[in-house]
Amino acid sequence: MKLYDAAMPGTRGARVRWILEELGIPYDVKTLDLRKDAKQPEYLEIHPHGRVPAFEIEGEAIIESAAICMQLADLHADRGLAPKLGTPERARWYQWIVYAPATLDGPIVERLFHTALLPPDKRRPELVERADATWKTAAPFLTKTLSKQDWLVGDAFTAADVVVGYDVALAANMGMLEGHPALQAYLGRLSSRPAFVKAYEGG
Amino acid sequence: MKLYDAAMPGTRGARVRWILEELGIPYDVKTLDLRKDAKQPEYLEIHPHGRVPAFEIEGEAIIESAAICMQLADLHADRGLAPKLGTPERARWYQWIVYAPATLDGPIVERLFHTALLPPDKRRPELVERADATWKTAAPFLTKTLSKQDWLVGDAFTAADVVVGYDVALAANMGMLEGHPALQAYLGRLSSRPAFVKAYEGG
């Protein structure tokens, strides 16, 4: 199993490293320079958009971090990171796992770029405003669930917490958890997991 | 089972209607006015962002069209719209089902708004450019698979074709399939399915 990631903090490769650490699966990492290696024909065969992560499993490459997390959770179903098929918990799991890339990632990643990563003359304040407007609804929505239970789906930590937790951790780095104590407490639970620490701080 | 949708063409509720028609499941539709009903507290309890679709199943509401499609496909696994857990086909299914909301929906829906739905003085050409740049990579990526097989995952039509097919149909309405014969042929296969016709024309 090989993870293609970039030498840059905050990539969505963190989701894949995190779930692999939760599952205790050994893996290789190929670290790319996003401006050079990731635009070479060889890598574009693996990820047509020249982004990270991509994940090779039995010689086949899959893209989309949320998809990779679902597949890994299913492959190790005994570890409890994926609720059983056809249950209401599975529906809720799908909802949160899709909510992250569909609704959270765009605004949060755009906010990061347009407040910090891009040079000041390339930053567009209207995209930051749009991100903040989404977060203004998303934060109470997450809070509604996370103020009555520790994890997003049922009573146990699942892959949904990895996928959404990535966004919560990124939001925290931008000060977006201020005034959201339930989300701060959730991040506290997430970041005290050994797998989180290894994924974010290990090599 | 109740689908919350809007009286507007092109909503992502089409994905849910389509898969319900494929599965032959009867359902109720509650049609909302996006500017009024969808912003009422009662609906915001169901969908915090005041968008459509939302789907009520056994009294529990789920949001995110791709998530709803996965759950419905699992609940009727005998109909073959979801590959078996833990197989390479299931990984590919997840990839395409996440690719749609993560990578395709944003640009395609933004393009629709900023070329047609918004009044001319609110349209932002740079968002159309960004959409076109994504499509320039996405169209060959889809073509790579769809020029060698009829459907996205393995040899059979699955929920991935519903989720991604929605974007292909929307792209076609904006003339974006020109110069992409494999995608035109794919849309031909999709739109000749009785469930597609019922979802898009019935109702």
TrEMBL record, chains A, B:
Q: Which Pfam families match?
A: GST_C, GST_N
Q: Which UniProt keywords apply?
A: Transferase
Which residue intervals define the domain GST N-terminal in the entry?
1-80
Top-level taxon of the source organism? Bacteria
Residues in domain GST C-terminal? 86-203
The record's annotation in Gene3D superfamilies points to: 1.20.1050.10, Glutaredoxin
- Which InterPro entries is this protein grouped with? Glutathione-S-Trfase_C-like, Glutathione-S-Trfase_C_sf, Glutathione_S-Trfase, Glutathione_S-Trfase_N, GST_C, Thioredoxin-like_sf
Q: Does the keyword Transferase apply?
A: yes
Known SUPFAM superfamilies for this protein?
Answer: GST C-terminal domain-like (SSF47616), Thioredoxin-like (SSF52833)
Q: Which GO terms describe its molecular function?
A: transferase activity
The record's similarity note reads: Belongs to the GST superfamily.
Q: What PANTHER family is this protein classified in? A: GLUTATHIONE S-TRANSFERASE FAMILY PROTEIN, GLUTATHIONE S-TRANSFERASE-RELATED
The molecule here is called Glutathione S-transferase
Species whose genome carries this gene = Sandaracinus amylolyticus
Lineage of the source organism?
A: Bacteria, Pseudomonadati, Myxococcota, Polyangia, Polyangiales
